[in-house]
Design goal:
Largest sheet: 8 strands, antiparallel, barrel
Strand content: 5-15%
Radius of gyration: 26 Å
CATH superfamily of the largest domain: Tetratricopeptide repeat domain
CATH class of the largest domain: Mainly Alpha
Helix content: 25-40%
Distance between the termini: 88 Å
Number of strands: 8
Oligomer: single chain
CATH topology of the largest domain: Serine Threonine Protein Phosphatase 5, Tetratricopeptide repeat
Number of helices: 10
Number of domains: 2
Order of helices and strands: HHHHHHHHHHEEEEEEEE
CATH architecture of the largest domain: Alpha Horseshoe
Length: 293
């Protein structure tokens, strides 16, 4: 071998050292998928035990590649595998990770509730999804599957179609919420499910005005229910969509004068015990104050 031939490999190596390999920017900053970490936690600990760890991932979002589509797919996979509780944990994280509640998220949450034997909650979520995307194919199919009725193509005329700010009296007539009560403080508060699930329901005085209550399931992406009084301790959803039965609830009122529990029937089928009071002016997102259901 000549001297020239022996020096060629050395020259090539020197060139490589002088110009190190530059990876694409996405390869240098590659992050693990958030959905993979959620799956690892749930598969290792179970949905209930992993709930706190999964919720805390919201504080570490910068460490992950956050894909809502992957989270929706993961939630669907858990529901299909017969673990709707795990699906709901994934949906809760998807909601908390930023952005609006999409029709796809509402549908997968509805599927999980349907799998848990809660068709009324599922129906509400499918209807919410169809408000955003009227032709969403799975929302339409699943709504019919749980016994619901597809909404009419033409929107129902409302008093808002003429424009302008509705008066409180007009809103009261439209919402059909009945007469106001002077004892709503007996019922307002935060209530926790008594069956071991980490689910809260808020009962609060709605912005429709003094003396009227609303109830909001804090774990579900559904609009709060405006309540109409039936008797001293019984209420029902004032204006449920025509496609389903209204939510029914009855409070348990001890001698002290403030309800210590509330029992839901008609889809939710659960007992919630008082967990604490609400801050003044409490109003969850989606309160249907000036919008018909």
């Amino acid at each position: 071998m000549t001297r020239r031939a022996r020096t060629l490999p050395n020259l090539c190596l020197a060139g490589l050292l002088a110009f190190p390999l530059v990876l694409p920017a996405e390869a240098q900053t590659l992050k693990p998928q958030l959905s993979d970490e959620v799956k690892r936690l749930i598969d290792e600990k179970g949905s209930q035990a992993a709930m706190v760890d999964v919720v805390l991932l919201v504080t570490r979002l910068a460490e992950f590649d956050v894909s809502r589509d992957r989270l929706v797919a993961l939630a669907n996979a858990y529901t299909s595998a017969g673990d709707p509780d795990a699906a709901l944990v994934v949906v809760q994280l998807a909601q908390s990770s930023g952005g609006q509640m999409t029709a796809d998220l509402q549908v997968v949450q509805g599927d999980a509730y349907a799998a848990k034997g809660l068709p009324q909650l599922a129906e509400s979520l499918y209807l919410e999804a169809l408000q955003d995307e009227p032709e969403h194919p799975r929302a339409r199919a699943q709504l019919v599957a749980v016994g619901g009725t597809l909404p009419d193509a033409a929107p129902e005329p409302t008093m808002f179609s003429t424009g302008g700010e509705p008066s409180r009296a007009d809103v009261m007539r439209w919402q059909n919420v009945g007469a106001p009560r002077d004892d709503v403080d007996r019922f307002t508060g935060m209530y926790l499910s008594a069956n071991g699930a980490n689910r809260y329901v808020a009962v609060y005085e709605t912005c429709l005005g003094s003396g009227h209550l609303a109830s909001a399931p804090m774990w579900a992406g559904v609009a709060p229910w405006i309540l109409e009084s039936e008797s001293d301790l019984a209420f029902h959803e004032a204006r449920a969509p025509q496609e389903r039965e209204p939510v029914q609830l009855r409070f348990e009122d001890p001698a002290a004068g403030q309800a210590d529990a509330v029992i839901f029937t008609g889809g939710l089928e659960d007992r919630f015990e008082r967990a604490g009071s609400l801050e003044a002016g409490f109003q969850p997102e989606g309160d249907q104050c000036y919008r018909p259901f």
